[in-house]
Amino acid sequence: METTSSDKGLNGSILVRDASVEDISDVLVVEASGYDFPWSEAIFRDCFKDSYTFLVLLCDDRIVAYAIISDIVGEAHLLNICVHRDFNRRGLGAHLLHEVIKRARTQKCYSILLEVRESNLAAKLMYEKFGFSMIGVRKNYYPAADGREDALMYQLDVPDLSVDEQV
Ligand SMILES: CC(C)(COP(=O)(O)OP(=O)(O)OC[C@H]1O[C@@H](n2cnc3c(N)ncnc32)[C@H](O)[C@@H]1OP(=O)(O)O)[C@@H](O)C(=O)NCCC(=O)NCCS
């Protein structure tokens, strides 16, 4: 899906499409910019299985963000969403999360789950803005510079699915 955006300093075209294996090198650059403990190439290669949806967001033909969800019997798990550090705070994370929710709805998922570092204020605020609720804590889930860090679990009921569609 292609849109043109001129808000928040973005003047070019924004395109969200399914990723291909050829995109992994660009995705790794985005990943390295976003995380102290980035995923390996092997993990990204594993995300092309049938039950996964791997989206990339291109800004003027450059991959600057991606999101990966897995679908387990109608329950989507948002495994990763990342915007290149140089493109933060321009609405791209929100744009991509909106696409993730739309894709989950298309795939007839009734719920989206995710984990987020307790210290990750930007991501927590983004999820809360979209209506995600905190539903639990996974103790010591993530590696951290000084040991381990808890994950907060967030959940969203995918909007606009009728009860009939959920079964
Ligand atoms: C979290 C992340 C995806 C947000 O992407 P982004 O494109 O910078 O975010 P957006 O500009 O779309 O902002 C969407 C909302 O997120 C929140 N937000 C984003 N960055 C924020 C920051 N630095 N401080 C406070 N709130 C922030 C705000 O609620 C914002 O809405 P607003 O602009 O109306 O205030 C991005 O910071 C990122 O890639 N971080 C590294 C990877 C990561 O932590 N992923 C999440 C793993 S669970």
TrEMBL record:
Biological function: Acetylates the N-terminal alanine of ribosomal protein bS18.
SUPFAM superfamilies with a match to the protein in the record: Acyl-CoA N-acyltransferases (Nat) (SSF55729)
Binding of acetyl-CoA, residues: 89-94, 120
HAMAP family reported for this sequence: RimI
Name of this protein: [Ribosomal protein bS18]-alanine N-acetyltransferase
Enzyme class: transferase
Record's keyword terms, sorted: Acyltransferase, Cytoplasm, Transferase
Main subcellular location: cytoplasm
Record EC number: 2.3.1.266
Signal peptide: none
